[in-house]
Design a protein that fits this description.
5 helices, mainly alpha, 142 residues
Length: 142
């Protein structure tokens, strides 16, 4: 391996890592811009004030769950699109970055909505992910 090919490999690795980190961060920032978190929820997260009544706390929790569901759907949709695109792109660093970024985006979407997901949904999601990954790797080998 000469110095030129080493520099090219480092450049491709850097591009891959940047894409993989940038995609989930960009999705979360976009959701935060278009669906801002209400100031009341931020205040409750910072410190649970005792003077709020139960009805107000409950309505804020419902709003927070709805917002997290939107984050979940957005992350899963964009993550799947990135994964599928990464399978068809011929530029190695871009394809790898899209695959890693798509996976991380889906992961962060699941983490944000994890407390609201049922065990059955989580199991079925993991089963589908395992089956899809196994199928893709099997097809790639042929």
């Amino acid at each position: 391996m000469n110095i030129t090919s080493f520099v090219i490999a480092i450049r491709e690795l850097a591009a891959t890592v940047v894409i993989a980190i940038l995609l989930p961060c960009m999705v979360h920032r976009a959701v935060k811009i278009f669906i801002p978190e209400p100031q009341a929820i931020i205040a409750i997260k910072k410190l649970e004030r005792k003077d709020r009544n139960d009805q107000e706390k409950e309505s804020l929790k419902i709003w927070e769950e709805k917002r997290e569901f939107i984050v979940f759907l957005t992350c899963v949709t964009i993550g799947l699109a990135a994964l599928i695109t990464g399978c068809f792109v011929s530029i190695t660093s871009l394809a790898t970055g899209l695959l890693l970024g798509g996976g991380l985006t889906i992961f962060t979407g699941y983490i944000s909505y994890w407390p609201y997901l049922s065990d059955l949904f989580i199991f079925v999601s993991m089963l589908l992910a395992f089956a899809g990954l196994s199928f893709a790797l099997y097809k790639k080998r042929q």
